Amino acid sequence: MLNKILSQADTIAIGGHVRPDGDCVGSCMAMYCYIKENYKDKKVTVYLEEIPRPFEFLEGTESICHEIPEDKTYDLFICQDCGDKQRLGFAAPLFETAAHTFCIDHHISNESFAEENYVVPDASSTSELVYELFDKEKVSLSTAEALYLGIVHDTGVFQFSCAAPSTFRMAAELLEKGVDAPKLIRDTYYVKSYAQNQILARALMESILFLDGKGIVSSIRKSTMEFYGVTPKELDGIVNHLRNTRGVKVAVFMYELETNVYKVSMRSDDDVDVSKIARYYGGGGHKKAAGLTMAGTHYDIINNLSEQIELQLGGSL
Ligand code: AMP
Ligand code: MN
Ligand code: MN
Questions:
Q1: Which ligand neighbours the alpha carbon of 24 most closely?
Q2: Residue 317 reports pLDDT greater than 60
Q3: Which of 37, 88, 103, 217 is the most exposed place for a label (fewest CB within 10 A)?
Q4: Ligand 1 atom, smallest distance to 81 CA
Q5: CB under 6 Å to ligand 1: residues?
Q6: How many separate domains does the chain show?
Q7: Neighbour tally for 20: CB within 10 Å
Q8: Which domain-ending residue is among 190, 219, 251?
Q9: pLDDT reported for residue 314
Q10: Mean pLDDT of the chain, nearest integer
Q11: What is the value of pTM for the model shown?
Q12: How far is it, in rounded angstroms, from Cα 21 to Cα 231?
């Protein structure tokens, strides 16, 4: 499939979602390295917003473009880990003007908006789908590292239910390519700055249970982020800590993007499909991990979300 799609293009742009996470950066850089190494006559460029600093060790990240050149068009735009066009952010015009488009994604909310689509909602990560498209013999250590980063981050280090036997098999094959898994996991997933740990502690300390302990919520104001000198992309992972509270079925973490506008992250277990709630408010994601942007005070937001969560919990409350 990939060979056929690439055969119609000399110039290729790769893009992913706004505020790129491990799977987005990993899958995009893997595709970039794979094309660069195995299709030497093609010109490939990655367009992503600023990536988290711990991911900068990946091959090729120094050449990521953060803005689009004027009048530039591509033969092919490959859109990865992105459920809709708007989520491409600044790179969306390149998608619109490309001669051909291809989307590789695992968001349940993805409505196959590209010309060619490889969308598998049950897949652990976009990185796993990207790996399936590759000729395994041609995967280098650089490509393997990027893919490993992607699966580690979207499976919470192989802990979430989306980690399937195929994910572990893929991880084993990537280890055989020489990936230093303990170092990669520690450096990119667990190690946090002192300020990040402080803000995590604050989020946990100020969290509130609702719906009789079945929900937990915490929010961080912009002024608090400024006080600790922490940027939005450094708040990743806090929602997972909230979710690990006994009895909790839905965890909600939000941080203020601008006055009374919040980025909301939700995590759940089997009883609640948070992607439905996210979509209801214009966001998206997966059954057990979804996000949205919402206007209002954090009280308004939690009142709205709580109502939707309660509807799904129904009789089990
Ligand atoms: P997050 O809570 O930001 O870690 O996101 C959880 C999942 O939901 C990820 O797969 C995101 O790509 C997706 N997601 C987050 N925010 C949005 C949004 N505003 N619209 C669509 N999907 C989102
Ligand atoms: Mn993602
Ligand atoms: Mn993903």
A1: 2
A2: no
A3: 37
A4: 12
A5: 17, 83, 87, 107, 265, 283-286, 289-293
A6: 2
A7: 25
A8: 190
A9: 84
A10: 96
A11: 0.94
A12: 14
